[in-house]
Design a protein that fits this description.
- With 376 residues, this protein is mainly beta.
- It has no helices and 28 strands.
- Strands 2-11-10-5-7 form a five-stranded mixed beta sheet, with no helix packed on it. A five-stranded mixed beta sheet has the order 13-20-19-15-17, with no helix packed on it. Strands 12-14-18-16 form a four-stranded antiparallel beta sheet, with no helix packed on it.
- The N and C termini lie far apart (104 Å).
């Protein structure tokens, strides 16, 4: 270690050179080390105090989230090797909703030192005030170096009212009449500058045979004054006539409409819709296909006892498919017809020769015996 006279010590490093030894082990120690005559680390002419230039956060308009107030506080750094002291003051241009706290006064900061939260609490704001955007600023001054520039730190907080949701879940949704599911977030207000949090879909669940829902997807956000819509769809193919029932639900959370983070978000109630679909008798169905189109669920017919649906195959040419639930099938027409006992099915093609799969569905207890099924 090299030594010499010290005038003002900002910091001190001891560098130990490589130690060599010839035995099994060696020990070393530094003893009776002292530094005299230092200046407590002050060297303000070689100091440069900096502070976080801007801080922003979002918070709900609620005091029940476990934190009814929020503090304006920031880190302070000395970017040079000389020690000094600094002070922080709340600027008078700050919004009056901020209450002065206990900002740092003549706080020592060593050379190349960072103080987390070194400003102390500059000001606090009550999160139960009306929603809106609020801003405060503070000035950090190098007390001992008048030539060093003052640093202004800006802080903005947005306080949100929680989502105010309405929906059409009060009565079962008749999907064959009006398939839309609606989730509406109210507008912000009524005071000037009001802000309202969004509601974000975190999970969606569909139950009930044949039902699916498009829209209201996970991640969808209902912002203030916005309506999110889901549409119920029902797969009728291979199903007997009758009323089908199911359920659709979404779980929600509060979210920042600016798509950033949101502190103190509180739970949002989930929404559940009962969904129904009345499937009537369909005695005939047809579809126009191009070459290479799939036959899967292109045509299907049904009544209360029987349903028939094409579920596989590929069109070799452009053609029209026709499927008819008929009491008088064209028995013996092997190119165009298939029939079953009880409720015959007449399957007609404009082009023959393609391979296909025809699925039959029967009411419980209505499955015919092998002797009474006719496939021509």
């Amino acid at each position: 270690m090299d030594g010499g006279p010290f005038i003002d010590i900002a910091y001190l490093e001891l560098l130990v050179d490589e130690i060599t030894f010839s035995g099994n082990h060696s020990e070393y120690a530094i003893d009776n080390f002292s530094v005299n005559g230092g200046g407590s680390g002050f060297d303000p002419d070689n100091s440069f105090v900096s502070a976080t230039t801007s801080i922003g956060t979002n918070r709900l308009n609620t005091g029940t989230s476990g934190n009814p107030t929020f503090a304006f506080q920031f880190d302070v750094d000395n970017l040079n090797f000389g020690g000094t002291t600094f002070s922080v003051t709340l600027d008078p241009t700050s919004d009056p909703q901020f209450t002065t706290g206990t900002p740092a006064t003549a706080q020592f900061i060593g050379g190349n030192q960072s103080l987390s939260g070194g400003s102390d609490i500059v000001a606090t704001i009550d999160t139960n005030i009306p929603s809106g955007d609020y801003q405060a600023s503070a000035t950090t001054t190098n007390d001992l170096n008048p030539l060093a520039p003052d640093i202004t730190t800006t802080y903005q907080i947005t306080i949100f009212d929680p989502p105010d949701l309405t929906d059409n879940s009060g009565a079962p949704i008749q999907a064959n009449i009006n398939p839309d599911l609606t989730l509406v977030n109210a507008s912000a207000g009524p005071h000037a500058g009001a802000q309202r949090a969004s509601a974000e879909v975190t999970t969606k669940t569909v139950s009930g045979a044949g039902f699916s829902v498009t829209g209201l997807e996970v991640g969808a956000l209902a912002d203030a004054s916005e309506t999110e819509i889901g549409t119920v769809q029902f797969d009728r193919y291979g199903r007997l006539s009758g009323t089908y029932s199911g359920m659709f639900s979404v779980e929600l959370k509060m979210a920042d409409p600016n798509r950033s983070f949101l502190n103190g978000a509180q739970p949002v109630l989930s929404v559940e819709w009962d969904i129904n679909y009345d499937l009537g008798d369909l005695f005939a169905d047809n579809a126009t296909l191009a070459a290479t189109d799939s036959y899967d669920k292109q045509v299907g017919v049904n009544n209360g006892q029987t349903a028939a649906t094409l579920i596989d195959g590929t069109a070799s040419t452009g053609q029209t498919l026709s499927l008819v639930l008929s009491a008088n099938p064209e028995v013996g027409d092997t190119a165009t017809s298939a029939a079953i006992a009880g409720d015959p099915i007449d399957l007609n093609f404009t082009t023959s020769g393609d391979l296909y799969v025809l699925q039959f569905t029967y009411a419980e207890g209505g499955l015919p015996t092998l002797e009474t099924i006719w496939i021509f």
